[in-house]
Every structure is written in structure tokens, then in C-alpha cells.
Amino acid sequence: MIVTVYTTPACGQCNLTKNWLTKNNVEFTTVDLSQSPDDLAAVRALGYASAPVVIVSNGDPETDLHWFGFRPDNLTRYTLAAA
Predict the structure, then answer these.
(1) DSSP 50
(2) What is the reported pTM?
(3) Span between the terminal Cα atoms of the chain, in Å
(4) Does pLDDT of 83 surpass 90?
(5) Please, how many CA atoms are within 13 Å of residue 36, restricted to the half-sphere of its CB?
(6) If you compute the radius of gyration of the chain from its CA atoms, what whole number of angstroms results?
(7) In the chain, how many H helices and how many E strands?
């Protein structure tokens, strides 16, 4: 399982998401959308216009899970249950 959190500077929900993952010992990668135009375009192509965007991947883009905002329900369901 690969967890990626796409963030923007000074994003409160981004910080809550990253803090939740850290507190629950879930490894994740952070991508700052303000520093990566290609990733910003990819997130927008998924239909998202605000951060954070969380993608949980098991290696198959067809079955990747993704959502935006601080969602402890999804974080629990898709990161802790999978671990």
C-alpha cells in the first residue's frame, strides 16, 4: 500500500491529515502541489480543486482510492484496515 498526500502551503486540512497518518504510524509521501505543476495537473484531472488529496494505491491505477479533505473515516478504513 502506498499513501500519497497532495498538499498546499498553509493548508489546515493537509496538516490534520498528515498528523493523523503520523500518529497512526502509516507511512506516506507528501507532494506539495505548489511546487509540482505536473502533479497539480494530475490531481485536477481526477476532478479535485482543493487539498489535501489522498491517494491510496495498491499498485493498480484502476483500483486506486482517492478523496480530498481531512477524512478520518476514509483514513481508518483504507489505511489501517489495509495494514
Answers:
(1) S
(2) 0.93
(3) 8
(4) no
(5) 14
(6) 12
(7) 3, 4
Tell me the pLDDT tens digit for each residue of 1-47.
999 999 999 999 999 999 999 999 999 999 999 999 999 999 999 99
Is-contact 44 6, C-beta < 8 A? no
The amino acid present at 69, given as its one-letter code, is G
| Distance between CA atoms of residues 46 and 24, nearest Å | 27
The answer to whether 75 touches 66, Cβ cutoff 8 Å, is: no
Q: Which of 63, 42, 62 is nearest to 53 (CA)?
A: 42
How many alpha carbons fall within 13 Å on the CB side of residue 14? 17
C-alpha cell read off for 72: 478520518
CA distances 7 to 18, 60, 81, 82, 83, Å, are: 9, 22, 24, 23, 23
What is the pLDDT averaged over residues 63-82? 92
